[in-house]
Write a structure and sequence with these properties.
The chain is α/β, with parallel strands linked by helices. It folds into two domains: 268 residues, Aldehyde Dehydrogenase, Chain A, domain 1 (3-Layer(aba) Sandwich); 189 residues, Aldehyde Dehydrogenase, Chain A, domain 2 (3-Layer(aba) Sandwich). Helix content is 36%, strand content 21%. Strands 13-14-15-12-11-17-18 form a seven-stranded mixed β-sheet, with helices on both faces.
């Protein structure tokens, strides 16, 4: 495979159909080696103003809304095809900038293309309704796009999460400005190159490769932005919502989690282990919806610990390009943060089963797959999002205690249940405070299934048909007909 060396090109911002340089750059590093792989132009306040002006011109012209909706559907279908044409290069860049296994990076580009396929199919199906008010009245609703949607994308699944919000926003007729993550901006640039090749109206899509504290802050505070979409930390999300509240700007927020899977006595333990492998250790645990707490009935507690420890010990830790099971975490700062959580957990009395520290003898930022048992539910590691390959195992005696433990954090993104009893599988979801509940398989679902959180995990829903309504507002029209 003959890849483009990221050192051999200039990585720019995309505004109003033009690739723009900047006087400043940020460096991008390969977390598997710690070495610099590229420099990306930093968007400043002037780029933000230009992007917002271009998006407003697109909205005002009606380039996305005055056309027949089927033309938006065809545009999204072209984007999906172009993404697939660039998927191999994009996956390579996604792998070396984020550390994830190359096959996972390939699947991420295919998922990004699927978002445009899926929402392209909805572009001509955003319908209103007629409301009966009696004789001489005509009343109906119209679904209108917000206008300018500002979207701030995280680094852990940048192309996929970007497409997750961008595709339905475009399908609904919004112009979009994306702020890419400074730690992993390269794959998103390839995504936007694919979008450019597909042919979109000027100003309909814009990409700012800036810093969160400058470009991101300027974007969310801009007086002409009509909607904000954010995936990331609670602290940043809260700051964004405070800024948005000054102008009553609607937000879609996905702010992370501390998700628990409940293992009942009759659970298929092999499925539990497979779910831990995928839910806890995929992408080095850097997943908002990660399975970070495992609540296990006392009757199978030690058996589950043994099986999970055996699986964790079998994982190969290494470079994603080489196909390792567990790649590096995104940065030295993140690695130190994860190690700090583990050290404090040991000091607090949690039983370390395996891992607990960085991998020695490797360049880059690698963390051992880590399992703690006998974790007290009030410990920091049981309450706060670690965002690394770390699992906390706790025991419970009965259903009431299991649900109490599962709901016992400030988060409410995902929950899981492992059981072969239909009555438990059906009665558990209403008792769990989470935006989605998985039964017998972590990450069951897909693009078609709504995703979002309760409590401090955020609000609004992405994915599925429901997400399209995050990008439109309803207008009611009431008419008194002439006698």
């Amino acid at each position: 495979m003959n890849h483009l060396d990221p050192h051999n090109r200039t990585w720019l911002n995309f505004v109003n159909g033009v690739w723009l340089p900047s006087d400043e750059c940020i460096d991008v590093h390969n977390p598997a080696t710690g070495k610099k792989i590229a420099s990306v132009a930093v968007a400043g306040g002037n780029h933000v103003d230009m992007a917002v002006a271009a998006a407003r011109d697109c909205v005002t012209s009606g380039a996305l809304t005055k056309c027949r909706p089927v033309l938006r559907a065809e545009m999204l279908a072209r984007i999906a095809r172009e993404i697939r044409n660039r998927a191999e290069e994009g996956a390579y860049l996604g792998c070396i900038e984020s550390g994830k296994p190359i096959e996972a990076a390939r699947r991420e580009f295919e998922e990004a293309a699927r978002y445009f396929d899926y929402y392209g199919g909805m572009a001509d199906k955003i319908e209103g309704s007629a409301i009966p008010l009696g004789q001489r009245y005509l009343d109906y609703t119209i679904r209108e796009p917000y206008g300018i949607s500002a979207q701030i994308v995280p680094w852990n699944f940048a192309p996929s999460i970007c497409a997750r919000s961008l595709a339905p926003a475009l399908a609904a007729g919004n112009a979009v400005i994306v702020k890419s993550p400074e730690l992993a901006p390269l794959a998103i640039i390839v995504l936007f190159e694919a979008i450019e090749r597909a042919g979109v109206p000027k100003g309909a899509v814009n990409l700012l490769c800036g810093l969160g504290r400058t470009a991101g802050a300027a974007l969310v505070a801009h007086k002409d932005v009509d909607q904000i979409v954010f995936t990331g930390s609670v602290a940043t999300g809260v700051a964004i919502m405070k800024a948005a509240s000054e102008r009553s700007v609607p937000c879609v927020m996905e702010l992370g989690g501390k998700s628990a899977g409940i293992v009942f006595p009759d659970a298929n333990l092999e499925r539990v282990v497979e779910s831990v492998k995928a839910g806890t250790f995929f992408n080095a645990g850097q997943i908002c919806s990660a399975l970070s707490r495992l609540l296990v009935h006392t009757s199978v507690y030690e058996a589950v610990i043994g099986k999970v420890a055996e699986m964790a010990g079998s994982l190969e830790v290494g470079d994603g390009l080489a196909g390792a099971d567990l790649g590096p975490v995104i940065s030295e700062d993140q690695l130190e943060k994860i190690e700090g959580f583990c050290q404090r957990a040991k000091s607090a009395g949690a039983r370390l089963i395996t891992g607990g520290q960085r991998v020695s003898g490797k360049d880059g930022w690698f963390m051992e797959p880590t399992v703690f048992a006998d974790v007290d539910p009030n410990m920091e590691i049981a309450q706060e999002e670690v965002f690394g390959p770390v699992l906390c195992i706790m025991k419970f005696e009965d259903e009431d205690q299991a649900y109490q433990l599962a709901n016992g954090t400030r988060f409410g993104l995902v929950a899981g249940v492992f059981t072969q009893k239909l009555d438990i599988a059906l009665s558990a979801p209403p008792r769990l405070s989470a935006g989605q509940v998985f039964v017998n398989e972590w990450f069951a679902g897909g693009i078609e299934t709504p995703f979002g959180g309760n409590k401090m995990s955020g609000h609004g829903r992405e994915k599925g048909q429901e997400a399209i309504y995050s990008y439109v507002r309803t207008k009611n029209v009431g008419i008194l007909l002439a006698p």
